[in-house]
Design a protein that fits this description.
Order of helices and strands: HHHHEHHEEHEEHHEEHE
Oligomer: single chain
CATH architecture of the largest domain: 2-Layer Sandwich
Structural class: alpha+beta
Radius of gyration: 28 Å
Number of domains: 2
Helix content: 25-40%
Number of helices: 10
Number of strands: 8
CATH class of the largest domain: Alpha Beta
């Protein structure tokens, strides 16, 4: 009986000693966590999309707290969220220019196909064989990977088979940009209302053979623009959004109807 009691007291004593040791150690080696970190994480969208350049929202929150990133680093978060983060960090946030994604191809069903494709239904796969399923080397492949990866359902398909972005839903996260194998999607200022929706750099004769609406570099839009906002580069008309005043005169003279008002 004495031996049993001794064992019980010994084990209880050791438990008490180890417990006190753990309690003291937890205080000595405790890592203090800035309460702002949790608040910043709550404000971020928790999509872990990587659009900010960090591994996820937790990494982004730590970078913000350590002042390695600016309050507006997350392109998915709203301007209101950016302002709240700036307030938490004691920073003044400059006025943001609202942006949106735009898809610069209007070929749709008017663009020819090279062959009948029966492979994996993604744009990346359809671009791998024989220069891509689209006869235009620069045109949309129409497997709509951009629509599938958009976390905000901001990309729809028009009646001509073209993917189009809804600027009210788009958050400029850039996921569609990164997943387009033909670089047809760009982030542009939302205030811009006029777009030349073509990305072909082929010569006009080649464009006419493969697409009914592709840019043929005729130069009419360049001549008509009153503020010299349009230039021809590599057989393609391009708009300088900083100069464009959205007058729409270029729309009226385009013989291919690829210039449109958003």
């Amino acid at each position: 009986m004495t031996a049993i009691l001794a064992a019980v007291f010994t084990i209880s004593g050791l438990g008490l000693i180890f417990g006190l040791g753990l309690a003291i150690g937890s205080r000595i080696f405790a890592v203090s966590i800035d309460p702002r970190l949790e608040k910043i994480e709550e404000l971020l969208p928790h999509l872990n999309c990587g659009a900010c350049g960090y591994g996820g929202c937790s990494d982004c929150a730590r970078a913000l707290l350590e002042e390695e990133a600016e309050p507006a680093i997350c392109p998915v978060a709203s301007p209101e969220t950016h302002r709240e983060i700036a307030e938490l960090l004691g920073k003044i946030l400059e006025e943001e220019e609202k942006t949106t994604a735009r898809i610069f191809c209007r070929g749709g069903y008017d663009a020819a196909r090279r062959y009948l494709y029966e492979g994996i239904k993604t744009c990346q796969a359809a671009n791998q064989i024989g220069g891509g399923v689209s006869a235009c080397d620069y045109g949309c492949l129409r497997y709509y990977t951009c629509q599938k990866v958009c976390p905000f359902e901001a990309i729809g398909i028009d009646d001509r088979g073209n993917p189009v972005v809804d600027p009210e839903l788009c958050r400029s996260c850039g996921l569609c940009v990164r997943h387009c194998p033909r670089d047809l999607i760009r982030i542009v200022p939302s205030k811009s209302e006029v777009d030349i929706r073509c990305s072909s750099r082929a010569k006009g004769k080649t464009v006419v053979k493969v697409c009914a609406v592709g840019c043929i570099a005729c130069g009419k839009c360049v001549k008509e623009c009153p503020v010299e906002a349009i230039t021809l580069e590599d057989n393609l008309a391009r708009i300088d959004y900083d100069k464009c005043v959205n007058c729409g005169k270029c729309i009226e003279v385009c013989p291919r109807n690829i210039i449109s008002r958003v």
